[in-house]
Write a structure and sequence with these properties.
The chain is mostly helical and 540 residues long. Helix content is 81%, strand content 0%. It starts with a helix and ends with a helix.
Length: 540
């Protein structure tokens, strides 16, 4: 447990700094291309394409399969050397091929995700795509190396490397503004040089991010060599497992495609693709810091216990990880909800627009806890070599996402379309998580659900006064007319971030005080992470 706490502290600290620098990166990016406009939507679509492919590679193949398989390969006579060398060789070939195919299909891919764009907007998006799509190769290497490091309990580099990407992007976007000016939100403002600087900066950051992980490879104790003899070491089993997760992620991408095309109807005048991207980035901050940072070490341990047949310990791992994650996620959702206007002000041009964009973030937050719990539940299935069951409960989620996205334009005006689509996604995720928990409980013969439910009840009780306290602070600093929202330009975005921190910080303190009064045993997780973070930080 001490090693789990230390790993979570390292991951959490790295993720926090990564996400904060990511927010700064987004602020600078929006200053350069504008937060609302056809040009910003074109860049967002093009730069999202390699992320979508990366999601297929990482979630669809690597995360679901690699950690459990590498854990099992440690029992081989050579400690898994041959298996991992063949795996890396195959992965490199696949990433290169995927990048080449995507480059050839770039115009079609841009159109597929943004069929409502104007012709000149599609042309700009395609030009950006040619510069951004090489990220696929570097994303793939980053994920493959990172997941191997995680499987070998080398947790830090995978989380800290993206900081370099953010720093490079921030510098590149600032250089762009120095050369060409800011707020380039109209398509006709762009020429090939501007496109090259913007797209090249985004891709360079991902390349450096992948290269930095190689510096940590020595700590795995593995020695790689190119090996194209892919038969006889179990890659067939990997392919079988990955086929289900690949289809699962493809289904998710199709659902996202439906969302993207529906939301693109609001491009230019209302909170559309850019605002959804910005709201999602804020939404993912607590998910990455807490769900991923706490859940990733547990996933490695669950895979180890599963390989050893220690099923009672797997049940305990799942219950403990859910309680630890929920402790932080519940208050994160409430704090960001009451601070939604200053939080969205970070990514918008003015306070009035932030008030319109805040509902998008709130609707995403409805699904924060279910998504966080799903992180552990889904990966427990993966640890048992079961990728088919997650496919089926994800198909249900994707179907609900598509239906809700199709219905949304019939129920709400364009100004609220993004929020309605986000809410539909959150509710679909809630249904998915409930089904997944029921199926996992049946598989394991129990999940200590009464104890988990008691913990969740304590967290909700503590979050209610914490939310009111945060809302009170928001009103005290002026609400929508205060300094955290009403300021203009870059200063307004920075003050929005500060205001979000003030409101959220007060809510978090009140939350901890109430839990202390309730004598919540889960508070030991907080003290443990803090104690382990300090020596982990000192050791670096």
């Amino acid at each position: 447990m001490s090693s789990l706490g230390r790993a979570s502290a390292i991951l959490g600290a790295g993720t926090l700094i990564s996400r904060v620098t990511g927010l700064v990166r987004t602020i600078v990016l929006l200053a350069a291309i504008g937060s609302v406009g056809r040009a910003s939507d074109a860049f967002s679509t093009a730069n999202q394409l390699p992320n979508n492919v990366f999601t297929i590679i990482q979630t669809g193949i690597l995360t679901a399969v690699i950690i459990p398989q590498i854990v099992k390969s440690a029992s081989h006579k050579d400690g898994g050397q041959a298996f991992i060398s063949k795996l890396f060789t195959l992965g490199t070939v696949v990433f290169l091929a995927a990048t080449g195919v995507a480059m050839v299909l770039a115009p079609w891919l841009v159109f597929m995700y943004s069929s409502q764009f104007t012709p000149d907007q599609l042309a700009l998006g395609t030009a950006f795509a040619y510069w951004c799509l090489p990220q696929i190769f570097f994303y793939g290497l980053y994920a493959l190396i990172g997941e191997t490091l995680n499987a070998k309990r080398v947790f830090g580099p995978y989380t800290w490397a993206p900081i370099a990407n953010n720093v490079i992007s921030i510098i590149g976007f600032i250089v762009f503004m120095m050369l060409f000016g800011d707020n380039r939100n109209h398509v006709e403002m762009w020429d090939p040089t501007m496109i090259a600087v913007m797209g090249g900066t985004a891709t360079l950051g991902i390349a450096v991010q992948a290269a930095l992980l190689l510096l940590a490879w020595r700590r795995t104790g593995l020695h790689l060599r190119p090996d194209f003899r892919w038969k006889g070491v179990g890659l067939g089993e990997v392919g079988k497992l990955a086929s289900w997760t690949f289809m699962m992620v493809i289904a998710g991408q199709l659902a996202g495609l439906a969302q993207s095309n529906i939301v693109s109807k609001a491009s230019g005048d209302h909170p559309a693709g850019t605002i959804m991207m910005a709201a999602w980035l804020v939404f993912m901050l607590p998910y990455s810091i807490f769900a991923v940072s706490i859940g990733t070490p547990y996933f490695t341990q669950i895979a180890e216990h599963t390989a050893e047949g220690r099923h009672d310990q797997v049940r305990g791992d799942v219950a403990r990880s859910i309680r630890a994650i929920s402790l932080f996620i519940v208050i994160s959702a409430v704090a960001l909800a009451v601070a939604s206007v200053p939080a969205t002000r970070i990514f918008t041009e003015n306070g009035a627009f932030a008030e319109q964009a805040a509902p998008v973030l709130i609707c995403y937050l409805v699904g924060l806890l279910p998504l966080s719990l799903l992180f552990i539940v889904q990966r427990t299935f993966y640890a048992y070599g079961d990728t088919r069951t997650p496919f089926w409960f994800t198909i249900i989620q994707c179907s609900l996402i598509v239906v809700s996205a199709l219905v949304a334009p019939l129920l709400v005006p364009l100004s609220q379309l993004a929020a309605a689509v986000a809410l539909g996604q959150s509710l679909a995720g809630l249904v998915q998580t409930i089904i997944a928990v029921v199926l996992l409980r049946r598989r394991l013969g129990g999940l200590e659900l009464p104890r988990v439910a008691l913990s969740l009840g304590r967290f909700v009780i503590a979050a209610i006064p914490a939310g009111f306290a945060g809302w009170g602070v928001y009103l005290l600093i002026g609400g929508a007319d205060g300094w955290a929202v009403a300021s203009t330009g870059m200063t307004g975005r920075l003050l929005g971030a500060v205001g979000t921190g003030v409101v959220g910080g007060v809510a978090f303190v009140v939350y901890l005080v109430v839990l202390f009064v309730l004598r919540a045993p889960e508070l030991s997780v907080v003290s443990g992470l803090v104690k382990r973070f300090l020596p982990a930080r000192a050791s670096r």
